[in-house]
Amino acid sequence: MSEDLVVVGITGTGVAVGYFAILACGDGIVDVPAPKRQFVCVEEVVDDDETLFIVMVDLIGTDFIVHDMNTARRRVAVKRGGLAVKRLSKPEGKYNLVLEEAPMPEPASGEVRIKAVRSLISRGSEMGARYTREHAVSHEIMGYSMAGTIDAVGEGVSHFALGDRVVALAPHAEYTVRSGMVAGPDDQSRVVALPDDVSWDRAPYYPLTAGSVTWVDVGESGAADTVVILGQGLVGSLMLQVMKANGAGHVVAVDALDNRCALAKELGADHVIHAGQQDPVAAVRRLTNGAGAHLVVYAVGGPAGPKAFEQGLDMLGVDGTMHLIGLYEDQALSLPSSKIQRRRILGGYYGASIGLASYRRAMSLLASGVVQAERMTTHRFPFTDADKAFDLLWNRPGEALGVLLDWEQ
Fold first, then answer.
1. Cis status, amide bond into 107, omega within 30 of 0
2. Phi, psi dihedrals of residue 131, rounded to the nearest 5°
């Protein structure tokens, strides 16, 4: 801890300690000239019948060395009970997104606190399954792709230190607390260290990239196989890039939006089918000389899900596999026996048994630029405009794909 962050004052007096002068210190924020800074009173400590105030400057979530008037020193844990942080919340009502205040979360033993820098909005789970619903949704499931810095470490954490750059499965919030004990796939609240060559704008794509690497491994496609990816949203686009990086020989991308079809071609799809301009089933059958696809990756969400599922079955060849990843509306799917015989349907798979190698490979794909996150990012909003970001992504999908929230602005 640098000495210029060691500050304390006696109630109602002006006392210079270290490099700063405190004119007055009550509850809340105090302007301090010489030099002008802002301090937050966070805890009172009584010592020798005099009330001292511990003051926080810039660094949050650590210990401060406190000076009393006799120049004695001791280390005191800072508490921020009165500080409020911003986070996204979904109360009752469709499209009802608010930026609410909540107490500063404190890491318990084995946990770390992360100060957000960027987060990525998911049009599938966050919007189709939460933002558009009438019922209230827990803040904890509003978002799962956040990158930031460790700013507090609980007892027993050895994987991380203050200032570490990380990415986590975490909601949209200024600060969040997650487990810091397991840095791998066994912990659903995992936190993963970011290499220096993964930028803040790339980092939030890591959770979905790791998922895509896992899904590609499970799908078991070969270089001679025809792979069809239904949907070119975030998941479909990442699956396309990981498939190509994994050596897939013939990848066909299908979508009904112009912008997504154009991007799929730029990102390496061997063939792109615009479902708004032609029958995708007939097109796949033509491309495969009537045999059908070896693997169909279903990455479609929302109301279009059941129809896309039916199309996926119709374009799947004998002994082929259909991998269900997308989240569709709560509707029953038709499973005619004539269409599923000698075919395999695999539910979206995401688990620990694949091992850390998949997770390391995902980070490597991002760092090297093989997964082109910047090409997928169409918009960046300050977190205070999160409502505008959600509105754009839901109502104008033909204009947007990867939408980031910037927590530094």
1. no
2. -55, -35
The residues, any chain, with a CB within 8 Å of residue 289's CB and separated by 6 or more, are none
Residues of the chain with pLDDT under 70: 1-83, 128-129, 181-189, 328-330, 349-355
**Dihedral, 74, 77, 81, 84 alpha carbons, nearest 10:** 110
**Class assignment of domain 208-353?**
alpha beta
Assess if CATH 3.40.50.2000 describes domain 83-194: no
User: 257 to each of 46, 89, 232, 277, 387, how far by Cα in Å?
Assistant: 65, 30, 9, 10, 23
Q: Say what the pLDDT of residue 17 is.
A: 31
Tell me which residue of 84, 3, 76, 85 sits closest to 44, measured CA to CA.
Answer: 76
Environment class of residue 162 by beta-carbon count within 10 Å: exposed (0-12), middle (13-18) or buried (19+)?
Answer: middle
Tell me how far CA of residue 29 lies from CA of 24, 37, 43, 270, in angstroms: 10, 10, 13, 58
Q: Output Rg (C-alpha) for the chain, integer angstroms.
A: 26
What's the burial of 233, exposed, middle or buried (CB within 10 Å: 0-12/13-18/19+)?
A: buried
Domain ranges of the chain: 3-77, 83-194, 208-353
SS3 115: strand
* Whether 121 contacts 151, CB under 8 Å: no
The residue whose two tokens read 């995708």 is 280
Q: Count the helices and strands in the chain (H runs, E runs).
A: 9, 23
Strands (E), 285-407: 293-298, 316-324, 344-347, 377-382, 402-406
Question: Is residue 136 within 8 Å of 112, Cβ to Cβ?
Answer: no
Q: Tell me the residue type at 320.
A: G
Spatial distance between the Cα atoms of 239 and 315, rounded to a whole number of angstroms: 18
Q: Return the closest-CA partner of residue 245 out of 230, 233, 272, 227.
A: 227
Tell me the backbone φ, ψ of residue 167, rounded to 5 degrees: -130, 145
The count of other CB atoms within 10 Å of the CB of residue 344 is 12
- Residue count of the chain: 409
Q: What is the pTM of this model?
A: 0.78
* Structure token pair of residue 247: 């050596």
| pLDDT, position 161 | 93
At residue 151, the 3 state secondary structure works out as strand
Could you give the CA distance from residue 252 to residue 153 in angstroms, rounded to a whole number? 46
